[in-house]
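Narrative of activities, Objective 1.

The group set out to show that a structural description can be obtained from nothing but a protein's sequence at a throughput compatible with the screening campaign. Below is one input-output pair from the validation batch, recorded exactly as produced.
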Amino acid sequence: MILDKQAQSEIASYVGRLLREAFGKGPQSIFVSINRPFVVLYLRNFLSPTEKILLEQNQIHSIQTTRDLLMKSLIPEIKAYLLLLAGMDIREFYYDWGLHNQSGVMVGIEACEELEQTFLESEYAGKEELQYEMNTISQQVQKRPDELYSFLINERTLLVFRIGILISIEKELIRIGHEESLRLAKRNLEKSHLHNNGHFQEFLNAKVIDLFVDWDFHLDKSVIVLILNPGQ
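Output recorded for this entry:
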């Protein structure tokens, strides 16, 4: 089920207003893609004047830490709005930023008893090759996931889900309160491997114009989002 354009527009407007109030500047545009049980919000041209100065000084850690703190208060409001407007009971929520592209993404997942079946029903060109490559990258960085699935929301939005990826030392860092430091470190490490992979375009017959990754450490899950330009 894909929600109508008016609902997508209302979600984009609401989230844009929330971000503008929290950050002092909202994104220039938000593209909302809904294919239940998933909702993806892709943000373009989202960087405040202060963040721009920090980025020029290579203070990426400061920007990410501040945004993480603000998102903790915004996520419950976004979930509540999606429930009210679209009837989507969001149980999992992920987000990430592409600061050098001034972009960002948010991913919500509804409670769904047949989620694995939903993944299996998603067919697209290059699926098997892409999932093999994602497993290989995960193994290079940490460990091969216990499970890996992917879902093509639309021709421009591809989700990859990994379950069971944390190694023992990471679990211990989370237990003793270093979750935020672990998140920042994993973002840098994983994205360096993902961004430098030249095979995705071959498999998908599409150029990857943006790429994001986030984790729910307590569920031992990760979501990777590929924003595509088909036919490129």
